[in-house]
Amino acid sequence: MESAQVNIKGMVCSRCIYTIRESLQKAGMFVRDISLGKVTFCKPIDDPQKTTVRSILSGLGFELVSDKRETRFLEIREFIHQWIAAGSGREQGVTLSESLSRHFMQNYDTLSELFSQMEGKSIEKYHIEKRIEVVKESLVYTGKSLSQIAYERGYSSAHHLSAQFKKVTGLNPSHFKQIQRSKGLIVPDHSNEKV
Fold this sequence. Notes:
The protein is 59% helix and 12% strand. The protein contains 9 helices and 4 strands. A 4-stranded antiparallel sheet has the order 2-3-1-4, with helices on both faces. The radius of gyration is 19 Å and the shape is globular.
């Protein structure tokens, strides 16, 4: 059966997205959209094309997913990444568990059990770890204060962020600010400049 979408196991970051997009396009595949765990082509691909895609992915260290449980797991993981990028519910006033249940129209306990089996950790722990990774990047590569970062990432306060940060990394956020200062890593933020 032809489909315009394939699910991919092993994608973890934007570099994975870039590498897969480039490799598929070099092979003449027309990619409409690509995100963690999923590639959507401009038109359905047939079995020979799917074999080509599988071969390209295998050469890059990735593989196609055909199992429905694994597909749902990847969808949950992608949802978590999007949730973090959108400020972890800061604007909506709902929890991650409520949002997951609504989005997938499924009981949160069922989603949580599947995720824990596939990832080896709970949705909550995965969410916290990925959220802290984003905070680390902000601390090292932007000139934003801890309060600004806390607000953008959906924390109730800089104190709450600092406590969670230390619990996850074993270090204070100020340590990452020192890395920034010592290496001159601030990326200028021009978002508030007038044109």
